[in-house]
Amino acid sequence: MEPRLDSRELGDAAGRAAAWVGGYWARLRARPESLAVLSRARPGDVLRALPLEAPERGLAGEGGLGEAGWGEIVRDLDEVVMPGLTHWQHPNFYAFFPSNISTPAVVGELLSAGLGVQGMLWATSPACTELETRVLDWLGRAIGLPSDFLSESGGGTGRGGGVIEGTASEAALVALCAARHRARHAIAATGASADEGRWTIYTSTQAHSSILKAAMIAGLARGPEDRSQVRLIDVDSRMRMRVDLLAEAMRADIAAGRVPMFVCATVGTTSSTAIDDVGAIADALAAVAASSSLLPWLHVDAAHAGAACICPEFQHWLRGVEHADSMCFNPHKWLLTNFDCDCFWTRDRASVTGAMSITPEYLRNQASDAGEVIDYRDWQVPLGRRFRALKLWLVMRWYGLEGLRAYIRSHMEMAADFEALVRADGRFELVTERTMNLVCFRLSPRRGEAAAETDRRNRELIAKINGSGLAYLTHTTLPVFEGERTAGSMYVLRMAIGAVLTRSEDVRGTWALIQRLANDVA
Fold first, then answer.
1. Beta-carbon count within 10 A of 121 CB
2. Domain range summary for the chain, segments of one domain joined by +
3. Secondary-structure class of domain 167-301 per CATH
4. Which of 127, 166, 323, 348 is least surrounded by CB atoms within 10 angstroms?
């Protein structure tokens, strides 16, 4: 059958698919015990269930996704795909951080796919660019960003602005490339040579691995263990980057002839949602940079926590962001917008586009050449880009800021309730302060018990929890302190409460499960 765009065929197929997905959502909420949260598939199970060769004759030749064709697809979904899924939307999914979806986000994704436009240039679809510009300004204002980070006009005449990247990892790479571009020009302006082998990067030991990966991709680190240009700064007992040690490391590097070039502060670390003091870090950079040839670029990674900053009571986490050069967060984590959607803002768009822009003849056009428009291909690594702003736009219109704030606050309340339950059971201990919707806890050490034995018991407990199929948690290791210095690490359970379907009764039911399984830990 010849490929074509058939509106009736789309309506029939999309309707069947939407009904299937809706049934899946209903099953997750109504009968959560019927689905093991963590997939029990073994390596190769899905591969063995799929034929080695592609079908020679497609469903289109048999009537498309009509009753019979759709029946074949559903059988494969139920028998092959479903057993190989970990159910990220399950009400008892508490692992990693949430990966939110919602009806308007899914509809926005469908609209983007159906329109099929490429938003690499303003000229290739002006609405794709200008809707994104406006929505990023909406969201930037909603989380309390200063106007320096906003585009404020569709023509993009300001110094700053926002863009949708794929992930916070991509945003970190873009920020690092922009920092390097700015450093090259600043040092060249002094008449000195830019020896990039002497430029240094700083972040905390609790920062996301994407910062080191960005350094590797940018050629500023040879591998994960290379510390010749990357400095991982120790944290305090609240898991925040120690600003005194950051300043000390930068001063030592300057004295050794190195040039501090990039600093990443984290608002909501992956392991414990610790919140670095962005304002104090900015002050330290300004003070130390007085003896350096440039002010380091300050990037704020708020990948998970930034969503909560739509609530005014949490915007103090970003205090000092007015001194940062860029920041990002992922609505696809905790703001009801499906993956992928990272919002990245900068106060220095010229450095971003200077680092990322290349213009072959086939991309030249009058609007771009005149500098009248934003071309978002110059704000990211790839050339092509989907119409991702549609889903974020629909989410914000569907729920409004009021609805989004209520959503975030409900998870904060559930996390506070879980924290109180842990505190009330003497067999467990809270490991770090709770800043948002993540609770870090573990079985407490027994009297005289070695640290390794405590870790073993906690590993056994989480294996029992996840093996039950009734809930899914993840773990981390956090430093143990003697005074202000770290002295080893401990194994910790993480309970991240942020799934769309999670209710208070789910959290309390999971706590009852954890208590019951703790009885079986030797």
1. 23
2. 1-30+51-82, 167-301
3. alpha beta
4. 127
